[in-house]
Amino acid sequence: MLENIGSALDLLFQPARLLALFIGMLAGMVFGMLPGLGGVAAVSILLPFIYLMDGYSGLAMLLGAISVIYTADTITSVLLGAPGSPASAPTAIEGHALAKQGKASLALGVGFLASMVGGLFGALILSVAIPIAGPLVLALGTPELFMFALVGLCFAASMVGKDLALGLAAACFGILLGVIGAAPAAANYRFIFGQSYLMDGLSLPIVALGLFAVAELISMVASGGGIAGQPMALGKWGESFREFWRHRWLICRSSIIGIFGGFVPAVGASASTWIAYGHAMSSTKDKRNFGKGEIRGVASAEGANNATIISDLVPTMLFSVPGGPAAAIFLGALFSFGFYPGPRMVSESPDLMYMIVWSVALASVMGAAICFAVTPYIARLTRVNFALIAAPLLLIMVAGAYQGTQTFGDILALLALGILGWLMKNAGIPRAPVLVGFVLATPMEQYFWLTTQIHGYSWLTRPGVLIIASLIVIPLMLNAVRWLRQRRSVANDPKQQAEAAAASTEPPSHDSSVVLITALVMVAAFGYALVEMLGFRPNARLMPSLGIVPGLLLSLYVLGRQLIRIRHKGNMTNLASRQELPVLGGIVSYGLAIWVIGFNLATPLLLVWLLVGCARMRWGSALLYGLAVYVIAQGMFSMMRLTPPTGALIDLPMPW
Amino acid sequence: MFIPDTKLKTLSAATLMAAGCFAAAPAMAEDFYAGKTIEMVVPFGEGGATYVAAKFLEPFLEQHLPGNPQVNVRTRPGGGSILGANWFQQNAEPNGETILFTTSSTSNPYVLGMDAVEYDLAAMRPAYSLPFGAVVYVSPSTGIESSADLHSSDMPLIYGGIAAAASDLPVLLSFELLELDLRAVLGFDGRGPARLAFERGETNIDFQFTPAYMSQVVDMVEAGTAVPIMTGGSVGDDGVLSARDPAFPDYPSVYEVYEELHGEPPSGVEWDAFQAIGATTFNFGLTAYLPEGTPDEVLEIFEEAITSINADPEYQDKSQEAIGGYDLLPASVVTDSLSESLQPSDEVRDYLRNLLAEKYDVQL
Predict the structure, then answer these.
(1) Domain of A163, in residue numbers
(2) Closest CA to A632 of A466, A465, A392
(3) Are residues A49 and A172 in the same domain?
(4) pLDDT of A193-219, one tens digit each?
(5) How far apart are CA B2 and CA B55, in angstroms?
(6) What is the tens place of the pLDDT at every residue in B252-284?
(7) Which of A548, A520, A525 is CA-nearest to residue A536?
């Protein structure tokens, strides 16, 4: 075994392979940083290229990308507030709040270091656990997988913030989005409106891009300045190292949670990130800072998500059952190079196993180092007028979305979700619960039905189920006890009472009309869904009903509350929201233009509008810059071997 | 191990080119694909079994098709392969430069007449097929040691699958044909998770396609934790699935098991249904379709290329591990039998639709 560790290092330390690993890392970093495009996009773009190399180089390239995604996406999450990939939503919440307080370097530094630790833990687990992890993975049956998804959802729900009704309504809405498509337990297609596009359900990257990135993009273009209201001070790295060291055990525990998340196929990174976040919350005495910039939230989420994506490889290589979408593509690559994952592979090609471990470890460390190095340059970008960055960013998002099925449905879905994300953002409805509800709805439903079909109700007493359930119940009880105690102490202290009262009557600053429209949209969506749901088969109805029934009641409550507020306090106008409307309109028109006249003609119009109209560039420089952006966008399409969306009316052919 | 050796490829390409110059025989076919690019559309995501098989075949097609075209594998996932196939129907030109490479996930909805289907598979011209066999195996805890014991299990049989109208259909039809008493638990993510459930003891009868069987189940059989029972079989000289799967000559086919249990060869609508769906799933498991109206010339070119790929020692060497060692089936072997399977009688179609509706609650 020891000699294998050494010979595997020799295998990797060949210029061509190191170069491949490095190229993979660069691709992984770029795609990690681009909002919404995560590991799947990076790995699927690299995939055609690995066939030009030998097996070890090709795999090293993919591993390089996989290992750094969750390190690099910290940058986007913190600076933009849009999660670089869906499993970084907690980082986007806490890290971005810290960045707004001028502590971006703290959030970033701790995030990079925690990611590195997560990656190293993952590598360690790969090297020691693969020979012994078989029984562990097999011990996690369908009931345990169901419980894991449930725990993830519960911990995410703990994130809903002050306004419980809004948060829960959002989570319900996420479940509603998640159940679109084929029902796992009955032959029912749900909410597909006769469109074959929706048969597979909405794709995760598009939901994440639409809900977060489009809305952020709109508000940043509208505000006219840089990403940060004023020049964002990065600060010094020193503090981040100290904070990292202070929370080292939390990061280790989160990494271990992440590793278990990786053992659970399909539930994976999103659940484990939220569980780690919930753990950080329950292990912190003073919870007031959560949601407002708590470094422990960043540390736990980043430790967990990087550990998960790497330990995803454990079930992949032991059972050829990929733990996540990126691992699925990695599995395909292993097949193509003639490696057939299974218990036998571990004993037959130990060199390959340890080469994988070394690649992951090396990429994790180098990835964090590179992130530290490039962050100052990227932070400078945040001071540039955002309309300049928005142009390439929007095109990348369109290309990323279009990669899904290469039909106009991808762009329509992106736009619709973008409008929804904008409405929710401006109505003060948290979007992270939507994402979590969306991600976990499918595995929860699937494993629930499998569990009851196979085990009846006996599964409730399985030891694994009880252990995982205790993860929900124990913190809940502890919280209840703490809450009671606090209430008693508050009751005795008039000063604290007054503070609490002041906090609860904090006036909402959201535009009344936007809140009203959003509530109406949600009521309409839930109401329609309820009617259609009644026609489903019983096995296809349970999970949607869990989202729709409470969702309808909650959104009705939100609507009623808003109507009362308007009557009592009159209409509240939020100027910022109103200013964003033209930008929203511009982006919607761009979508329509793609449909009518195709990407190739619509994009120059968009560039003119963004660069000259919004960023007030001079025509000369706008033409030059716009041309460069256009060429790069076309280059991205051809790199991904896609033909840009063609128009329904006319289509401008490209010379290539 | 499959590592594309570009140097070797260029060398052999050069040799072929040189040979072409000297021979200068029927010029039409000789350079038909010179300088052209073939787009092989895979209606599934990257990294899936179909993608892997397409990538495996890519260099062999490049090498053996006259004129050495560049072959690009292009994924168009969505709608359980229906979106990609619809795209192909609407966009592919019948010039031999666009191929749809797909599985029974595309043909089953066509056979069943689903609404979303906009493609006419039977009108397309199959260029070649790659068999994709499957083995049914049980857990030793059932007490079943061979196909003869199938009806005398010690415990209720539980089967884990994905969805009745998808790739589980042929196996479920074989259970119907053999009148097996079992409970089908549907809703798994894929065959891999279903196999994990088998390994955990949550289910006790399962099937895997050849590549996964080779890499995962063979070890379990050796360790005594799985007992192989039967294969789907392969199309014999009589044009139906009566022969044994060439990858597993030791295991009986469903046809033989029926014969063994009933003393007569299978017949009737249950058999016809299994035959139609089984043939497209197993024997013509991965099929390359050319658009309707593709000229015979292109088909002849493929016929020759497939014959020479099968004879290529490198293919024989590598296909064993990568795809189960099956020979490619040329169009002359595929066309008639596949076309029959794609257009079953109304009786078979009604039987399938009824079975899916009544037993599995699938409304088509």
Answers:
(1) 2-490
(2) A392
(3) yes
(4) 888 788 878 887 788 778 877 887 887
(5) 11
(6) 999 999 999 999 999 999 999 999 999 999 999
(7) A548
ipTM value for the complex: 0.76
For chain A, first and last CA: distance in Å? Answer: 52
Say if residues A262 and A308 touch (Cβ distance below 8 Å): yes
Question: pLDDT category, A482, cuts 50, 70, 90?
Answer: confident
Per-residue b/e over B108-140, b at no fewer than 16 CB within 10 Å? bbbbbeeebbebebbebbbbbbbbbbbbbbbbe
Q: How far apart are CA A448 and CA A175, in angstroms?
A: 15
Share of chain B residues as helix, strand and coil, in percent rounded to the nearest 5: 50, 15, 35
Task: Note which residues in 303-362 of chain B have CB less than 8 A from chain A.
Answer: 318, 321-322, 356, 360-362
Q: Are residues A443 and A582 in the same domain?
A: no
Distance of CA A417 to the CA centre of its chain: 15
Q: What is the DSSP letter of A645?
A: P
Each residue of A186-214: b (16+ CB within 10 Å) or e?
bbbbbbbeeebbbbbbbbbbbbbbbbbbb
CA A616, A618, A620, A621 torsion: positive or negative? negative
Q: Does residue A437 fall inside a structural domain?
A: yes
**From CA A276, how far away is CA B248, in angstroms rounded?**
48
Domain limits of chain B?
A: 6-131+284-342, 134-280
Cα–Cα distance for residue pair A413/A627, rounded to 1 Å: 27
pLDDT in tens, B98-134: 999 999 999 999 999 888 899 999 999 999 999 999 9
What tens digit of pLDDT does each residue of B50-107 get?
888 998 999 999 999 999 998 988 888 877 888 889 999 998 999 999 999 999 999 9
CATH architecture of B134-280: 3-Layer(aba) Sandwich (3.40)
Interface contacts (A, B; CB < 8 Å) = 154
- Here the tokens at position A238 are 């020193």
Asked if the structure places residue A277 within a domain, the reply is yes
Q: Kindly state whether B202 is in contact with chain A, defined as any CB-CB distance less than 8 angstroms.
A: yes
Interface test with A, best of B200, B213, B315 (most A CBs within 10 A): B200
- Number of structural domains chain A divides into: 2
Task: Determine what percent of chain A falls in helix, strand and coil, rounding each to the nearest 5.
Answer: 80, 0, 20
Task: At A251, list the tokens.
Answer: 């990061």
Residues of B in contact with A341 (CB under 8 A): 215
How distant is the Cα of A289 from the closest Cα of chain B, in angstroms?
A: 39
User: Fold identical between B6-131+284-342 and B134-280?
Assistant: yes
What the block records as the tokens of B3 is 């590592």
Q: Does B9 touch chain A (CB under 8 A)?
A: no
Residue pair B100/B84 in contact by the 8 Å Cβ criterion: yes
Sequence letter at residue A248: R
pLDDT digits (tens, 9 = 90+) for A293-311: 889 999 999 999 889 888 8
Pick from A336, A404, A455: CB nearest B55: A336
Residue B6 has pLDDT above 50, yes or no: no
- Reported as a pLDDT band with limits 50, 70 and 90, residue A343 is low
- Which fold, B6-131+284-342? D-Maltodextrin-Binding Protein; domain 2 (3.40.190)
Pair (A335, A447) in one structural domain: yes
Residue A641 has its nearest CB partner, among B45, B74, B195, at: B74
Nearest to B2 among A137, A194, A338 (CB): A338
State the residue for tokens 């509208």. A222
Residue A559 in domain: no
Question: In chain A, which residues have their Cβ closer than 8 Å to the Cβ of B72?
Answer: 641
Mean pLDDT computed over A307-328: 79
Instruction: For residue A462, give the 3-state DSSP assignment.
Output: coil
The average confidence (pLDDT) of chain A is: 82
Q: Do A137 and B197 touch (CB under 8 A)?
A: no
